[in-house]
Amino acid sequence: KDFSLTITVHKNDIDELGHVNNVVYVRWVQEVAAAHWDSLASSEIKQKYVWVVLRHEIDYLSAAFENDTITATTWVGESNGARSERFVHISSTKTGKLIAKAKTTWCMLDGATMRPKRVDEEVVRLLRGEV
Q1: Do 123 and 49 form a contact (C-beta atoms < 8 A)?
Q2: Cβ atoms of residues 114 and 50 within 8 Å
């Protein structure tokens, strides 16, 4: 199930070229993923499982500028062992034009031991909004 977050581009997001710095997109990718998880998981589940990033792949397709409003939409792909893939599309809220797209590999950790833990069917269903 898709989840979206609306973000306004602020002055401190802008680099010396006058558009959003590439590092800001990484932050947004992580913010929308965290907001999605927060919207789905109970406090008990959040204590039981913790997510860490293993890999980000981002394609920058267009520029965003100060005061632009963007929409970051995320959804979860396949899970294998302790790894889960997540996709994010960042678009102009006004025009719908795709600005950037990302694929991130996350690793689920056991909240108590902080060791990798297999993503079980319960978590997959939760991430897909099936529970």
Answers
A1: yes
A2: yes
The residue among 3, 1, 9 whose CA lies nearest residue 99 is 9
40 contacts 49 by C-beta, under 8 angstroms:
no
Give ∠ CA 2-8-10 in degrees, rounded to 5: 140
Q: How confident is the model at residue 1 (pLDDT cuts 50, 70, 90)?
A: confident
- Confidence (pTM): 0.94
Are 88 and 74 in contact by the 8 Å Cβ rule? The answer is: yes
Smallest Cα–Cα separation from 21: which of 56, 55, 60, 74? 60
